Amino acid sequence: MLVWSRTGRAGAWGVLALLFGVVYGVPLVMIALASIAGQWNGALPSHLSLGHYAEALDGDSAAQLRVSIVTGAVASAVAMFLGSWAALALRNLRPAPRRLFDMVFFLPSAVPSVSVGLGLLVAFSRQPLLLNGTTLIVIIAHFVLISAFTYGNVSAGLSRLPPEFELVAASLGARPGYRLRRVTLPLLTPYLIAAFSLSFAMSMGEVGATIMVYPPGWVTLPVGIFALTDRGEVFAGAALTMLLAITTLIVLLGLSRIPTKAVTRQG
Amino acid sequence: MASDLALDSARSVARSAREPGSGICFEDVTVAYKGTVVLERFSLTVAPGEIMAIIGPSGSGKTTALRAVAGFVRPVSGRIQIGERDVTDLPPYERDLGMVVQNYALFPHMRVDENVAFGLRARKEADTTVYGRVQECLRMVGMLNYARRYPRELSGGQQQRVAIARALAIRPRVLLLDEPLSALDAQIRRSMLDELARLHRELPALTVLYVTHDQTEALTLADRIAIMRDGRLVATGRSHALYRLPTNRFAAEFLGRANLLTVRREATSGAGSASDGVFARVRFGDVSLLARSAEGVSAGDECLLCIRPHDIGLQRPPAPVNALVGTVQSVVWQGDLHNVTLDLGADLGADLRGDLAGDRGDSILRLVSLPLREPPQPGDRLEVFFAPEDAVLIPAEAAHA
Ligand SMILES: Nc1ncnc2c1ncn2[C@@H]1O[C@H](COP(=O)(O)OP(=O)(O)OP(=O)(O)O)[C@@H](O)[C@H]1O
Ligand SMILES: [Mg+2]
Fold first, then answer.
1. Are A175 and B122 inside 8 Å of each other by CB?
2. Of A34, B196, B262, B286, whose Cβ has the fewest other Cβ atoms within 10 Å?
3. What pLDDT band is residue B344 in, cutting at 50, 70 and 90?
């Protein structure tokens, strides 16, 4: 931002802070307040308590949180594996077919996730692909929705990787597999972590497709929250939302602390 | 860093290098990127143990030639041999050569010793072998104390040493260097040049193909030089010979920025000292000059006279000599020398001035001399001298090569 005077800069920052405060901050504060509210009739809630959290932590909600984490982790891991594989396999393609593949990958993000869920439901409700009512179909739905982002992230990383590293590795006698394991993948680590983090966060918040396909035994937390608020239990829903957000945040923080030595040298 | 230890380790590398060394041979190699030919029927032989420099302007195909040897690009036609082996159809990882690229490309996620060990690990060498060889190569380039650092913690010159150690660790018979010094500042460049020369003295069997656009590097280091232009080889020869007796205009200008004067060979052959036919008398405007003759220049032909700026003197020597008179255009002092440019145009015959207007060759003569106590001033008329041995003729048809 090319604003030089001190007051000008302060003003610019002020506007920016206000904008972000309103867009991100206010809803979050509202949910946080609601999660500890007993009643909310005036401008601010009353009868504050942590009761909703206590309820959340035993019973169904704890199980739903576990389901969400497992779904997110499995779907993200598979997406990271297959997305990287696709990115590596497709990188030497000519631009035209490549764009086609890019589009195929990103298509699921361009349609409502409910439609993705519906599509899967219709596709897998018949023999021989009868997955309707299984845990697997939930994970597949999440995978379809997030794989574009792993693919996109890894592709971006690959295109930014100077070709010399792999060429030099080859000239030193490294066969393709060895080169991939010792050079390409380690250099891509930051992108892989970013891809996994983004996928996991998206999976943790996914509700549209899940609601179409989930079996009774595999209810994710967002679906649980949706059901609660649908029944009017807004405060309990808010408490679960906070729980979901905090869990996701902890996982993301953990991921961001994985050391990546693949920092390109300066200069 | 030229310690006894370094020498010992170098000798053990040299001893174990499969003797004798192997050369490189390009046979009519053509390389095209997406249909655009960037290397055209390139033929060059590098003898075992020789340092061959490839020089040429940017985009002339030097890197492409190197990449073809390394196997990074596949020629559309032609063969490439390393030693007795035709490697044209081999993948890079089966070619057994060392390569140092322009920006070194040290693996940023590996420490220095892991970088150097990479090629050996890829070959599944035993741990003890790897350890010994890494120590040996790091010692040879004086980087043993930096073994546990990451590349980003090294200076450019140090990274370059590690890149060389990494390439040498697999004991290649052929080392490819692509502008290895271009990222370094002038002073380090000079000392690295000495290092490379020392390294080659210690590994005499190692064949080196050295790409650069810096003629000083090429002249200092190389046994032979190949000059490239627009994807083609335009001249090749032993460094000294190519500098003293360039065979065409491009070689003369690119290697050492020679002065080129358009002259006409006189019909009457050999006068004065030109008894053995080595010398020829030529006419530059109204001035008669004596120069080394060249094949393909017959009496009456128009040709170029090539004379190096440092071979032109301001004092008349006693022996037979050529003299030219011109007007001083500029005098630039560079500390250890004076650069003088002279305009010969005013003193030319009218007919030749007409010729010059059409040709690219101009009437400007550049000369360098040791610092002058009383340098000439712009506008002064100045007489300069050069020996016939220092002037060489270049045939006119080659002039347009
Ligand atoms: N990957 C590529 N795709 C298409 N054209 C290329 C590619 N690499 C090089 N070229 C072209 O090939 C020609 C020769 O390139 P090359 O890199 O061999 O030149 P060079 O002599 O090494 O130049 P420099 O001194 O600038 O490094 C150039 O015209 C360049 O534009
Ligand atoms: Mg180059």
1. yes
2. B286
3. confident
pLDDT at B397: 63
Candidates A167, A168, A175: best to mutate against B (most CBs of B within 10 A) is: A168
CA-based nearest residue to B12, from B194, B137, B147, B112: B137
B212 lines ligand 1 (CB under 6 A): no
Q: Looking at this protein, which amino acid is placed at residue B284?
A: F
Q: Which helix (H) or strand (E) holds B369?
A: strand B364-369
Average pLDDT over residues B371-384: 86
Q: Which domain holds residue B121?
A: 2-243
Distance between CA atoms of B18 and B92, rounded to whole angstroms?
20
Last residue of a domain, one of B192, B216, B243: B243
Nearby residues of B306 by Cβ (< 8 Å), 6 or more positions away: B246, B252, B258, B259, B260, B391, B392, B393, B394
Ligand 1 closest atom vs CA B56: 21
- What CATH number is attached to the domain comprising B56? 3.40.50.300
Relative to the alpha carbon of B68, which ligand is closest?
1
**B260 and B168, same domain (yes or no):** no
A265 vs B contacts (CB less than 8 Å): 106, 108, 150-152, 154, 159
Mean pLDDT score, B242-264: 87
**Separation in Å, CA of A187 to nearest CA in chain B:** 7
pTM of the model: 0.80
| Over residues B338-343, mean pLDDT | 89
Comparing A54-63, A177-186, B177-186, which segment has the lowest mean pLDDT? A54-63
B255 and B333 share one domain: yes
> How many angstroms separate the CA atoms of A227 and A138, rounded?
17
* B83-137 pLDDT tens trace: 889 999 999 999 989 999 988 999 999 999 999 999 999 999 999 999 999 999 9
**How many Å lie between the centroid of ligand 2 and the Cα of residue B29?**
17
Check residue A108 and give its pLDDT. 82
Tell whether omega for the bond before A163 is within 30 degrees of 0, i.e. cis. Answer: no
Interface check B101 vs A, CB under 8 A: yes
Fold of A51-266: MetI-like fold (1.10.3720)
What stretch of H or E contains B304?
strand B302-307
- Kindly state whether residues B184 and B325 are assigned to the same domain: no
Beta carbons of A261 and B107 less than 8 angstroms apart = no
Same domain, B29 and B162: yes
B109/A261 Cβ within 8 A: yes
Q: Is B71 on the interface with A (CB under 8 A)?
A: yes
Work out how many domains chain B is built from and give that number. 2
Q: With contacts defined as CB-CB under 8 Å, which chain B residues touch A192? A: none
